[in-house]
Design brief:
This protein is mainly α. It has 5 helices and 3 strands, in the order ααββααβα. β1 and β2 form a beta hairpin.
């Protein structure tokens, strides 16, 4: 349909170029694929830990730099907020929703990696809170890696989901410090 100035809009001017749509689609696939990979590794490792390490002494590795053990954590890092399991569950669910919504507007592959790691970690721990004992929204997260001490006194006992969240967060901080935009604006 002609515009008021008498010029007609071509289909190329109305829609986004296919390359832009393809890049956006690839970023979404990267976020979701990386998140799924993190969740799979996290849940498999937790299942193995529960089956093999539960009720046993910690396994000492690398001269005591790393210990493998099973610890159930109803709180956050350092076992903080143990009585707030339901709140932590809601926060993790909100993180998942926000990351999925933002994924379609990511401005770079680097941001896709950062958010994929954060999404996978949040979803991995959320799965524990939803499906592990003592019940939905109150489940304890399985932590199993301790650094320098079998009791977690030097550093809190953690899991692969926690590691993914920390690594994704670190990448996000670096991207922000570099001035990289999280999202691209949509042109209508």
């Amino acid at each position: 349909m002609p515009d008021p100035a008498g010029e007609s809009a071509t289909s190329d001017e109305v829609s986004q170029p296919p390359a832009v749509v393809t890049r956006a689609h690839r970023r979404i696939v990267l976020v979701l694929g990386l998140a799924a990979f993190v969740v799979a590794l996290d849940q498999i490792s937790k299942a193995l830990v529960a089956a093999k390490l539960g009720g046993h002494d910690p396994v000492r590795l690398v001269g005591g730099a790393i210990y493998l053990l099973e610890e159930r954590n109803r709180g956050a890092a350092f076992n903080l907020a143990e009585g707030w399991t339901i709140v932590l569950t809601v926060i993790a669910a909100a993180v998942v929703v926000v990351v999925v919504r933002v994924a379609s507007r990511l401005g770079s592959t680097s941001w896709a990696v950062a958010l994929g790691l954060i999404l996978g970690g949040a979803a991995g721990n959320l799965a524990d809170r939803l499906f592990r004992a003592p019940g939905p929204l109150r489940g304890a997260v399985v932590d199993w890696i301790s650094l320098f001490d079998p009791e977690g006194r030097v550093w809190p006992v953690f899991n692969l989901a926690d590691s993914a969240i920390v690594c994704g967060g670190a990448v996000a901080v670096v991207l922000m410090l570099m001035g990289r935009e999280l999202t691209v604006s949509r042109k209508l």
